Amino acid sequence: MFGKSVGKLFTVCEWIMKLAYVNILWFLFTAAGLVMFGFMPATVALFTIVRKWLLKEIDIPIWRTFLTVYKNEFRKSNILGFILAVCGTLIYIDFQFLLSTEGITQLVMSIFLLIIACFYLILLSFFFPVYVHYDLKVFDYLKYAVLLGALNFHMVLFMLAGLSAAVFLLLYVPGLIPFFSAVSISCVLMSGGVYSFKRVQKLQMKARVAG
Length: 211
Hints:
By secondary structure, the protein is mainly α. The chain contains eight helices and no strands. About 85% of the residues lie in helices and about 0% in strands. Helix 2 packs across helix 3 (about 60-70) and helix 2 (about 40-55) packs across helix 8 (about 175-210). The longest helix is centred in the C-terminal third of the chain and has 34 residues, at about 175-210.
């Protein structure tokens, strides 16, 4: 009994160290790309490792995997990051412009922009899970992320709730930020992504059987 307890405690400590290690790598590699160019490939590398863990590939070489993905995905991930940033900036500018309007114009534009912002939020929620799970063309990542999120909108809500809880905890205990900030967020989003991938796969199998 005592041996089992020690074994479980050792496993927990090992996972805490792994999570902290990959989170520190994310900070270091993001900084290595001067933040602007390092954020996207570092985040893709982080999600790649978290995905493998969730799929029971627990013995992967963390450093080698992170470095390889970072280098291989540097260009493509930054192109997509630029597209996402432009889309987000345009939505923000439109909302600012909306403040200067009034009457029916403001009402119509508000509804339109809220719908666009909702789809953008879905896109952000599923972008990285889709990116590390599928091998697609550049713009297909954006399309698949939106479609997958729309098909699993309930999961988007769960993911946002999980993110809110994680952010609240990090703000309440700021000392956790250097060790568990990015990895906790990636675990929430990737868990939702893996669940959605499996759900879509089951629906596709049922459709084939029915057909």
